[in-house]
Design goal:
Elements (H helix, E strand, L loop, with lengths): L1 H24 L1 H9 L3 H13 L9 H18 L3 H11 L2 H6 L4 H31 L8 H27 L8 H14 L11 H8 L3 H4 L1 H8 L4 H31 L7
Helix pairs in contact: 1-7, 3-4, 4-7, 4-12, 5-8, 8-12, 8-13
């Protein structure tokens, strides 16, 4: 196990360079993926219009501006499409080549998606940051502890999202139309993560359900750290919950992967 971890660490710079090359080579597809995660801008226009008639659920127009621009930033930095990559590699049989390499595919896919993050930031985040500072700055936190905690929270949110999508993609070992399951996941994500509106203004039953699902910890928690006033205890609890969900989803992803590999039969070229 130590030997495998050391080998993975040595290979990581190369894997990241390959990920950058893939992003540049498939830049048109990459831009399409970025544009599919701009829904917070649509919701920003809707909810700031609603708040123009007065505060809604305790949110003013500036609060909604800060929320949805933070939403956009977090989504751009944590979103990934590994489920669709896995589905395609398994369906075409190209997964066989990945299995022959000395690096576990989990790390190969992860490095590819990590390498794409700077490109996502360059394309979308300057616009979001400018709007955030100019229009919603009054609703941003100024607490250094929360700003610092945002970094590990964002990392944990990325890991949870990646593990969930890796598990969904690994289901292609068992069924052929896993894209439908990914669509179901995204539908649930929009409701229970705070993607289309803050969870605080959702009906109470949805808030309770969201607290027991991983979606909240992939988006709403980092947004809270940027836009809410939280105590040190609240910050510690949120990070601990994210860490717990990271461990759970990593275990789920690896379990589905191991079960799938046992029955994998390569097809295609």
């Amino acid at each position: 196990m130590r030997r495998g971890a050391a080998r993975t660490l040595r290979a990581m710079p190369t894997l990241l360079r390959v990920g950058v090359a893939e992003t540049v080579a498939y830049r048109a597809e990459f831009l399409v993926w970025i544009l599919t995660t701009t829904q917070p801008l649509i919701m920003l226009g809707l909810w700031t219009f609603v708040a123009g008639f007065g505060t809604f659920g305790g949110y003013s127009a500036n609060d909604f501006t800060a929320y949805f621009l933070a939403d956009l930033i977090v989504r751009q930095l944590t979103g990934n499409w590994v489920a669709w990559q896995l589905m395609e590699d398994i369906r075409l049989g190209t997964m066989s080549m990945r299995l022959l390499r000395p690096i576990h595919p989990f790390f190969a896919y992860a490095s590819s998606h990590v390498a794409a993050i700077p490109f996502r930031a360059v394309v979308m985040l300057p616009i979001a940051f400018i709007l955030l500072v100019s229009s919603g700055a009054s609703s941003l936190t100024t607490d250094p502890a929360q700003i610092i905690a945002f970094v590990p929270s964002l990392l944990l949110a990325w890991l949870i999202t990646f593990c969930v999508m890796f598990a969904l993609g690994s289901l292609a070992f068992f069924i052929t139309q896993t894209s439908a399951l990914a669509d179901v996941y995204f539908g649930l994500f929009q409701i229970f993560s705070g993607y289309i509106m803050p969870l605080e203004i959702m009906p109470r039953p949805i808030q309770v359900i969201a607290s027991w699902l991983p979606f909240k910890y992939t988006l709403a928690v980092p947004i809270q750290l940027l836009t809410k006033s939280l105590s040190p205890h609240d910050i510690a609890v949120l990070l601990a919950q994210q860490a717990a969900w990271t461990a759970i989803m990593l275990a789920v992803a690896m379990s589905v992967w191991r079960l799938g590999i046992k029955r994998y039969e390569a097809v295609g070229n």
